[in-house]
Design goal:
It contains four helices and seven strands. By secondary structure, it is an alpha+beta fold. It has one domain: Histidine kinase-like ATPase, C-terminal domain (Heat Shock Protein 90). The strands form two sheets. Strands 2-4-5-7-6 form a five-stranded mixed beta sheet, with helices on one face. A two-stranded antiparallel ribbon has the order 1-3. Strand 6 and strand 7 form a beta hairpin. Helix 1 packs parallel to helix 4 and helix 2 packs parallel to helix 3. The longest helix has 18 residues.
Length: 179
């Protein structure tokens, strides 16, 4: 039930009464990977991170953004075969930052790639390794990204894996503090 409440809140947008914070995606993604390392290790999967040498700031809410990367990385682990790698990269181009999560998993049929972001949508359970999911995870991911004025795309090939790419507006500088 908490996932459904989270999705509803995100679809309404971020709280406009609250000042948006400053989130360093390098730190947020690093922490998320750290939280997933035991799970990945249990499947003999390595998570490789390629991050930026300087902080990558976006305006937003880390509480809403953390589940985005948690879900994408966790799905990469769940749907990948043992002894593979989930690659996560953070890059910057112009006024956008990109976080890419690439797995070597089951892949998603082309006809279903846009539907995976729908509320309660689940891939054919005959192919799914995770039968306990609610079908809300990727809906929450998309809603959180849209609430932060970003976009998410997926490219996938059956039996080869998937690449999820999140783009968010870059906050170029940390605001100066006044005394």
């Amino acid at each position: 039930m908490s996932q459904l409440l989270q999705l509803t809140r995100l679809q309404k947008g971020l709280d406009s009464e609250q000042d948006p914070g400053l989130v360093d995606l390098n730190l947020l993604v690093e922490q998320t990977i750290s939280d997933q390392e035991d799970f990945a290790s249990s499947k003999n999967i390595i998570i490789k991170l390629q991050k930026q040498s300087k902080p990558v700031y976006v305006t937003g809410d880390s509480v809403s953004l953390q589940p985005v990367f948690h879900n994408l990385i966790e799905n990469g682990i769940i749907y990948s075969k043992p002894d593979t790698t989930v690659r996560v990269s953070i890059s910057v181009k112009a006024d956008q930052c990109f976080v890419t999560v690439e797995d070597q998993g089951l892949g998603i049929p082309k006809a279903e790639q846009q539907r995976i972001f729908e509320r309660f949508y689940r891939l054919d359970t005959g192919r799914s390794l995770n039968k306990a999911g609610t079908g809300l995870g990727l809906s929450i991911v998309r809603a959180a990204i849209q609430a932060h004025k970003g976009k998410i795309t997926v490219k996938s090939t059956v039996n080869k894996g998937s690449v999820f790419k999140v783009s968010l507006p870059l906050r170029s500088a940390v605001p100066k503090r006044t005394r």
